[in-house]
Design goal:
Elements (H helix, E strand, L loop, with lengths): L1 H16 L1 H30 L2 H22 L2 H8 L5 H30 L9 H26 L5 H9 L1 H5 L8 H23 L11 H6 L1 H29 L1 H33 L4 H32 L9 H26 L3 H26 L3 H23 L4
Helix pairs in contact: 2-7, 2-12, 3-5, 3-6, 3-9, 3-11, 3-12, 4-5, 4-6, 5-6, 6-9, 7-9, 11-12, 11-15, 12-13, 12-14, 13-14, 14-15, 14-16, 15-16
Subcellular location: Cell membrane
Membrane topology: Multi-pass membrane protein
Keywords: Cell membrane, Membrane, Transmembrane, Transmembrane helix
Length: 414
């Protein structure tokens, strides 16, 4: 028994000495914690707030996420791609300033047109609610940029402490109950403020913050930024618009059922995405892409297979924790989870192409992804109800996996 323990400990130490495994371990652990705390957060919200308020809150959160994607200009990937070869201070300061200023502008524009784009969210045009929403968008942009910075620094372990602080959002749900849907959003926003305080304290060891935009850096890599900006915007819009589509087509109750199932299913997508992020960082520091790509695929499927088996048999029990109404989303949850097997192939191709500076290829893939998923979701929602989103997701990522395998074969990887 003791010998087995020694061998296991040695195996773990050896694995963590490989930078890809080490960074992947911390990124996966961090995102797993994010998913678990997110699960608990929405569980508490579903118990405290009406299903209509939960539905509106998920749509608000998705709208804020969509605004953030418009605000980044591709800089979040650039932090991870160029931290290893450029002045870290200039990269982080430029990214923070550009992103937060843009988030303020785009957030303001969204508030002005909210009543037209999504009438159910028109209430954020009231001064109090609009201010809360705008503040949430701005503080979220800071958290997103600084999170990417720690990954780019190969210090993903710092994100663990940030996620522990983020757990405080669950506590804030109780006193903010009187605000309804905005109360749910405010709970996350206050927790983000606490995370920002911690982040700036931690990051001062590695970078110097200043109000300084490096226009030379922006000009030199503008094609990379613009390509990734459009590409990331399309990728994130794929998921951000879905709750709004469900809300507009099927109503608040269906939006809540979809979002809870997606929040749980999100764990399955975080695995390939986390390992892919680590692959981008390691490739940007000169590590072998081919060797690390196959290592990454092994890590991903080693986690996805048992996780899918668990959700197939116990998915309904997990959803039942939120309330009897949410159990109706069991089939949707299973389909989302199964889709992750095909998503994994696509998710590894994106960082590989970014390391190789093949931005046009990344953009093309995400255009196809967006068109397929958005189009199929609109059609399947009408014919199959909320589970139609799952069918759209599975079909989309199956097609994307086949396309990626075709590219890999043409480029001689297989």
């Amino acid at each position: 028994m003791a010998l087995a323990d020694v061998n296991l400990a040695g195996f773990v130490r050896k694995g963590l000495n490989i930078q890809l495994y080490k960074n992947s371990f911390f990124i996966i652990t961090t995102r797993f914690l994010t998913v678990v705390t997110g699960f608990v957060f929405w569980l508490v919200a579903a118990r405290l707030y009406s299903i209509e308020n939960v539905g509106l809150a998920t749509a608000l959160f998705s709208a804020a996420t969509l605004i953030l994607q418009f605000s980044t200009f591709g800089l979040e990937n650039s932090i991870m791609r160029f931290f290893g070869s450029h002045d870290k201070n200039k990269v982080i300061n430029t990214s923070l300033i550009v992103t937060t200023v843009s988030a303020f502008i785009f957030g303001l524009v969204y508030i002005m047109i909210a009543g037209i784009v999504s009438p159910d969210l028109g209430f954020i045009q009231e001064p109090l609610y609009g201010t809360i929403f705008l503040f949430f968008v701005i503080i979220s942009s800071v958290v997103m940029v600084t999170g990417s910075a720690f990954v780019g620094l190969r210090k993903a372990e710092y994100a663990l402490s940030q996620n522990i602080v983020l757990m405080s959002r669950i506590v804030f749900l109780v006193p903010l109950f009187f605000l309804g849907a905005i109360g749910i959003l405010s709970a996350i926003g206050i927790a983000y403020v606490l995370v920002c305080i911690l982040v700036f304290y931690q990051m001062r060891k590695f970078v110097r913050f200043a109000w300084d935009v490096d226009y030379g850096f922006l000009q030199k890599y503008k094609s990379f930024f613009s390509g990734n900006y459009i590409s990331n915007m399309l990728y994130n819009a794929t998921y951000s618009i879905t709750p709004i589509l469900v809300l507009n087509i099927l109503g608040e109750v269906a939006a809540a059922k979809y979002y809870i199932a997606f929040t749980i299913g999100c764990f399955f997508f975080q695995i390939p995405y986390s390992v892919g992020t680590s692959l981008l960082v390691e490739g940007s520091h000169g590590e072998s892409l081919r060797k690390n790509a196959f290592r990454a695929l092994g890590i991903i499927y080693a986690i996805l297979i048992p996780a899918n088996i668990f959700i197939y048999f116990f998915g309904s029990s997990v959803l039942a924790l939120f309330g009897a109404q949410y159990v109706e989303s069991t089939d949707l949850l299973r389909i989302i989870a199964f889709s992750s097997f095909f998503f994994a192939i696509y998710a590894l191709m994106i960082p590989i192409q970014n390391v190789r500076m093949k931005v046009r290829s990344v953009l093309t893939l995400n255009v196809v992804l967006f068109v397929l998923f958005a189009g199929l979701s609109c059609i399947f929602l009408i014919y199959f109800g909320v589970v139609g989103v799952g069918y759209a997701m599975l079909t989309t990522y199956l097609i994307m996996a086949l396309i990626v395998l075709g590219i890999i074969k043409m480029e001689g990887w297989l």
